[in-house]
Design goal:
By secondary structure, the chain is of the alpha/beta class. Helix content is about 45%, strand content about 10%. The protein has a 7-stranded parallel beta sheet, sandwiched between helices. The structure holds adenosine-5'-diphosphate and zinc ion.
Length: about 625
């Protein structure tokens, strides 16, 4: 019965003229949205006119509609290249729910399924076809597709083409050839993260020299950002942060597989529905955990960066970095996975000077050109400058992406409680001299003991140094913070020494300038004088996302009933719940309490196909609750 109603309300209707009006009609009927957002109309207009374009829109900005709608309005098949199967599968499932004829083709599919898709391509009844770059660029595939009229080719996650970006995929480089193979189809490259240099690379590689560029603001007003320095490994702090956000879905990123396993174990032991995910786990287990996470109303995914790209779960309420990434691009993309539904969400990063030192060593050990290393090092430093800086975080990120006229967000930790800079130059001089006297032979703990005059088994040679015990003004924690600060500024340098890092002097010019008092050193807050102060700052005001989902107590039962109903429909069809309706859509229904189909259609996210499929059931739930 469902199949029948589908064909009645198919999204597939070719328009005589591919105008923006036709596109708006599809937006309303098929996707149930009132109007285009941000730069969508501009991008879509360009593609409808048959011209190629590059669109950089923030996560959640509606990139996929930019190629989905022209594929429905223009004659021919829309080809979409996407790097990950999970991403494609999700989009295809969501499109089918909206009555769009979309499929994904890959080599793992059964021959019968493949030939069915080819049959539909041949008869022109398919609107969109999703392919991986490797799959598309196979000569036989290109040959076959070159016989087919195309509405467009879309390259999703286009930043993967650039080695200056953070997620370079060599197979993306082949996509430049699409210009020759399909000379008549406009090409649309879309991404959420690309600085000016990456954009230039995309244009060169994908032969989009004359294409118009659309770069939207990177602002994500629903995201509240914060960052704090780690105490030790930081796992205890992660546990606290997760415990403060119960009944919410979140992602916790850790830097290593081992770190992921340990953190997940601790969270599970604390009663949190946590799932571990990294490339060391069996492929099937990973797939099961991904499904569990997508299908849960509240689950915490603890993962390495193996988890992420293309995971479009819209109701992730927070992303916590237990270990920081290595560049602003990666940071923005990773925290961008929170709040895709537009409801309030949080991005929280824990970082330390050792994380910085470790990331630098990793870059240094890579087998890439020195020029690439230099760029990566610079990106790393810029990222830590933001983390440890004193100005609005989103503003710093947006300026980094080249946005002009950026104002403060008013919602990040630094906007909410602006830090006061404290001059610690004199203490810095003491610490630098101590490190110098100790000859770079000791780790951080030992340097602190030396400053406090508490070294165990200290040789006479050490206790007689002029720096021994000169640092009574701070506690051990205070000195550790100051040493971190000096590392962030490049004034101290950590040597790996097989996991027992030694501290030495950093960049000589800077060190000299501090000794002479020509360069001042300041810190965000006064270093702890006693060890118990060190934890005091954690009383920061809690901000927990979810306000847009506030439906009022009188509608709460309806909202929960709608969610439960959605879970059942999703389970029946083996799709994630958000493919049926997003939380924000259900919340809107619960607030508005539509009493007929016409009113239900007015809710954003309710298109014709969904109205046809689910309208009666939803209206019935509204009546009964
Ligand atoms: P991304 O740019 O991250 O790929 P998506 O294309 O997944 O974003 O869209 C993010 C969300 O915004 C989706 O839930 C989508 O339905 C919604 N959306 C996209 N365009 C509009 C619009 N014009 N009006 C309302 N919602 C929209
Ligand atoms: Zn701010």
């Amino acid at each position: 019965m469902q199949a029948e109603s589908l064909s009645l309300f198919s999204a597939r209707r070719r328009y005589a003229e591919p105008t923006l009006e036709a596109a708006r009609d599809v937006l309303r009927r098929t996707f149930g949205h009132t109007d285009f957002r941000g730069l969508q109309a501009g991008v879509i207009g360009e593609v409808l006119a048959g011209r190629s374009a590059l669109a950089v829109l923030p996560t959640g900005g509606g990139k996929s509609l930019c190629y989905q709608i022209p594929s429905l309005v223009r004659q021919g098949l829309g080809l979409v290249v996407s790097p990950l199967i999970a991403l494609m599968a999700d989009q295809v499932a969501a499109l089918k729910q909206s009555g769009v004829a979309a499929e994904r083709l890959d080599s793992s599919m059964a021959p019968a399924a493949r030939s069915d898709i080819w049959r539909r391509v041949g008869e022109g009844s398919l609107d969109l076809l999703y392919l991986s770059p490797e799959g598309l660029m196979q000569p036989s595939m290109l040959e076959r597709l070159s016989q087919v009229p195309l509405a467009l080719t879309a390259i999703d996650e286009a930043h993967c083409v650039s080695q200056w970006g953070h997620d370079f995929r060599p197979e993306y480089r082949m996509l430049g050839r699409l210009a020759e193979v399909f000379p008549d189809a406009p090409r649309l490259a879309v991404t959420a993260t690309a600085d000016a240099r990456t954009r230039e690379d995309i244009r060169n590689e994908l032969r989009l020299k004359d294409a118009q560029e659309f770069v939207d603001s990177f602002a994500r007003p629903e995201l509240a950002l914060s960052a704090e320095r780690k105490r030790g490994q930081g796992h205890q702090r992660v546990l606290e942060l997760v415990a403060e956000r119960p009944k919410r879905s979140g992602v916790v990123y850790a830097g290593s597989r081992d770190g992921v396993d340990k953190l997940a174990e601790r969270l599970i032991a604390a009663g949190v529905p946590a799932l571990a995910y990294h490339a060391g786990l069996d492929k099937d287990l990973r797939a099961v955990r991904l499904d569990q996470f997508l299908e849960a109303d509240a689950a915490v995914m603890v993962a390495t960066i193996a988890f992420g790209m293309g995971v479009d779960k819209p109701d992730v309420r927070y992303v916590i970095h237990a270990d920081p990434p290595a560049a602003i691009e990666a940071y923005w993309q990773e925290i961008g996975r929170a709040g895709r539904d537009g409801a309030p969400a949080e991005g929280i990063t824990l970082y330390s000077a050792s994380d910085l030192a470790w990331a630098m060593r990793r870059i240094d050990s890579r087998e890439v050109d020195d020029a690439v290393k230099m760029v990566q090092m610079r990106k790393l430093r810029q990222f830590y400058a933001m983390l440890d800086g004193t100005g609005c975080r989103p503003a710093a990120v947006r300026r980094y992406f080249g946005e002009a006229g950026v104002t403060q967000c008013g919602a990040c930790d630094l906007c909410l409680s602006p830090p006061q800079a404290v001059d610690v130059t004199e203490a810095a001089q003491k610490a630098l001299s101590a490190v110098h006297r100790l000859g770079g032979r000791f780790g951080r703990g030992r340097v602190v003991d030396h400053l406090l005059g508490k070294s165990k088994h200290a040789a006479a040679a050490e206790t007689q140094m002029s720096t021994y015990g000169i640092g009574k003004e701070f506690s051990a924690a205070g000195w550790r913070d100051l040493l971190d600060q000096l590392m962030f500024e490049g004034l101290l340098h950590e040597e790996p020494n097989d996991g027992r890092p030694l501290i030495g002097l950093g960049e000589p010019d800077g060190v000299r300038a501090v000794y002479r008092g020509e360069q001042r050193v300041s810190m965000r807050r006064t270093p702890a004088v006693t060890d118990s102060d060190a934890t005091g700052r954690r009383g920061r005001k809690r901000r927990i996302g979810g306000d847009n989902l506030e439906v009022g107590t009188e509608n709460a039962a309806l909202f929960e009933a709608l969610r439960a109903w959605r879970r059942d429909r999703a389970a029946e069809q083996h799709v994630p719940p958000y493919v049926i309706f997003h939380d924000v859509t259900l919340a809107d229904i619960a607030r508005r309490r539509p009493s007929n189909a016409e009113e239900l259609k007015g809710v954003s996210g309710v298109g014709q196909s969904k109205l046809q499929r689910y309208g009666t059931a939803v209206l019935d739930l509204v009546r009964r609750h």
